[in-house]
Amino acid sequence: MNPNPEGFKGYSFSTLVISQNSTEKEVREENFTFLSFDERGLSKSRNKALDNASKDLALISDDDLIYCEGFENKIQDAFDQFPDADILTFKIITPEGKPYKKYSSESFKHDRSSIYKVSSVEIVVRIKSLKDAEVKFDENFGLGSKFPSGEETIFLNDAISKGLNLYFVPEYIVCHPLESSGKILDEKYFRSKGALIKRLYGNSLFLGLGFAFLFKQFLKPSRTISLRDSIKESLKGFNSIQNF
Question: Where does the record locate the signal sequence feature (predicted)?
Answer without folding.
Answer: none
